[in-house]
User: Fold these one by one.
Assistant:
Number 1:
Amino acid sequence: MGYLELRGLRKSFGGQPALAGLDLVLERGELVSLLGPSGCGKTTALRIVAGFETADEGVVRVDGRDLTGVPANKRDMGMVFQSYSLFPNLTAAQNIAFGLRLRKVRDRAGRTGELLDLVGLGHLGKRYPHQLSGGQQQRVALARALAVQPRVLLLDEPLSALDAKVRVNLREEIRRIQTELGMTTLFVTHDQEEALAVSDRVGVLSQGRLEQLDTPAVVYRQPASAFVAQFVGVTNAVLGTAEEGGVRLGAYRLTTAAADGLAAGAAVKVLVRPEDIGIAQHSGQDNGALVGNVLTQSFLGAVTRLSVRLDGGDQVVRVDQPSSRAVDFPPGTTVALDPSPGRLMVVEV
Ligand code: ATP
């Protein structure tokens, strides 16, 4: 039995399903992300867990206890939203102490000080929200959510309003604090890198259902569906037709077991990640490799990304090389591409 259980959750708005039977079980102390595109039902799921929304069907349990009918303020959950939602007329310390006062916790000043230290704001307790940066305000919001020692922490896109560098710092901090406290946490995000970086497991949601629930590495390396593959990672989708033992892409043929089971002649998409494609200067000999022309070469920091137009059509394939070992292929270079056969996914279109 898990610690936080979502069982068969269904919810429609005006006849449109937002959740279509969501099952998700978190172990105690686990951080699970709900990842998916806008409108897939992530926030609805979180709001049902928090008690702000009622499910049409299904139950939420914490530690075996059914929360149906339990109001939000009796659920023992801490929540952090995208908007910082601090009380503007209270200092950081007073914001954190607010929940402690409601619960009549003793030694509120001591506890508030500990929480400020926990989120790295020990010296800023006297500041008002407008005197704090966005990232600092979100740290206060996190401390306030943790102050009441919730059984479950719910994070709804807590980093989305922050700029890139602050976002990365704060997500590492959230992960550190969550691990330190052993806090069972449900984290909603549409940012795949964020989900992969902070989670024990990632649940990829599409149209109100879980497409996959796995560790970040498995979601990335073994996507359970074309949707997951395309949502997680910049994935190339090259159109072709299935053949015995492989796929035909225009004039080229890829030999791969990934097309096994598909009828010969079926229209397919070959999904392959940019980093799973080898690239070399084309020798001029036809050895069956995919040949194309470099359109652009972009330095992205850790990787250098090339876009290559395949000969005989207008399909463009992106190829990443680690920048530290990148070979220079200026635009116009004719190159041979070698997608790693074990890393392909072939789906019917
Ligand atoms: P986003 O990342 O854009 O917030 P999401 O995955 O969190 O998206 P939800 O907010 O859960 O998605 O919404 C799922 C669907 O339910 C959407 O189509 C949305 O328009 C609809 N929806 C959510 N809340 C309501 C509401 N209170 N009234 C009507 N429709 C709603």
Note: The pocket of adenosine-5'-triphosphate is lined by residues 13, 18, 36, 38-44, 190 (CB under 6 Å).
Number 2:
Amino acid sequence: MTGRIDIVSIFPGYLAPLELSLVGKARQDGLLDVTVHDLRDWTSDRHRTVDDTPFGGGAGMVMRPDVWGHALDEVLGEQDTPAGQSLLIPTPAGERFTQAMAEELALQVCAGGQLAIACGRYEGIDARVAEHYAEQEHVTVREVSIGDYVLNGGEVAALVITEAVARLLPGVIGNPQSLVEESHGSAGLLEYPVYTKPPSWRGLEVPEVLRSGDHGRIGTWRRSRAVERTARRRPDLLVRHAPPQVRLAKGVD
Ligand code: 6GU
């Protein structure tokens, strides 16, 4: 059984890349059901208004809870699934979106559940929307950020989340082994550097060990490059996978 992903946005055209490449192919093959909705379809005034000025003052506009309520009641209401529903609200003020979260969501979608993504613009969505849907029995609400920088809206995050989840669904990736060794997987290390033909290019050589055919040495070399790369670029990941004594000393937990 396969569940669905629904994305609500005032710029549905922003989600057009979901028709391309791996996700596009998965949709065509019926492995994944993604629907993009225009939030303005749930407005009722002539100007199709979705926002208003913030209570308490301040710059920018806030998205109205009534419009979002109509949209999400309909999008979440279509589904009655024992696998449950997740409502993701992308925001730079959210908890960090991780591979672990992508895996959790993929399992839910795979089991017939629903993932809905509510893309805010402007200064964000009235906080009562997250609060209201969190009170619904079958809905888990998560406000998520894709990294420490500020985007103009949730659409790019929705693309990121959808791709991260979709590629974990059975049949979407041709060779499941490629899911096993990659960065941020279970080993907790960044991926080792990779090479292909030609063996010599612009005076740069492919490391000899990779051409040796000695799979023991190749494995050792790759692990050590992965650790070295991780230590340089993401020392925080090494600490996270360190033994309990180190974690305790560094106050990771
Ligand atoms: Cl999810 N939204 C916006 N607007 N900015 C972000 C983000 C999300 N994650 C990082 N920056």
Note: Residues 215-233 form the longest helix (19 residues).
